[in-house]
Amino acid sequence: QVQLVESGGGLVQAGGSLRLSCAASGRTFSRYGVAWFRQPPGRERDIVAAINWSDVSTYYADSVKGRFTISKDNAKNTVYLQMNSLKPEDTAVYYCAATALRYDGTYFIRTPDFGSWGQGTQVTVSS
Fold first, then answer.
1. How far apart are CA 111 and CA 127, in angstroms?
2. What is the spatial distance between Cα 115 and Cα 33, in angstroms, rounded to a whole number?
């Protein structure tokens, strides 16, 4: 398993930006697919963005397409989620997750596919 620690959350006004970071330890990140999920208060945890282990394919939820960007820096063992044009509905706890599953160049987006999770970081967007 790989250990994950998120950072970069906080309070921001609508229209602002934040960059979340997810630092990995215990295993090299280059062999893992990674995703960001979020969980608003009282709701289920949903996929936000994903990147496959070889960085050739990405996935974005419709609600964040064009605003969020996921990227992976294998040299730093870190994954980022750049969030621009933030909206109040983006308010949630954001979780980083990693999967050792690999299938061609595809990504994984279901929570059961991920064996490693961070502790989460709160993002609050005020109107």
1. 30
2. 11
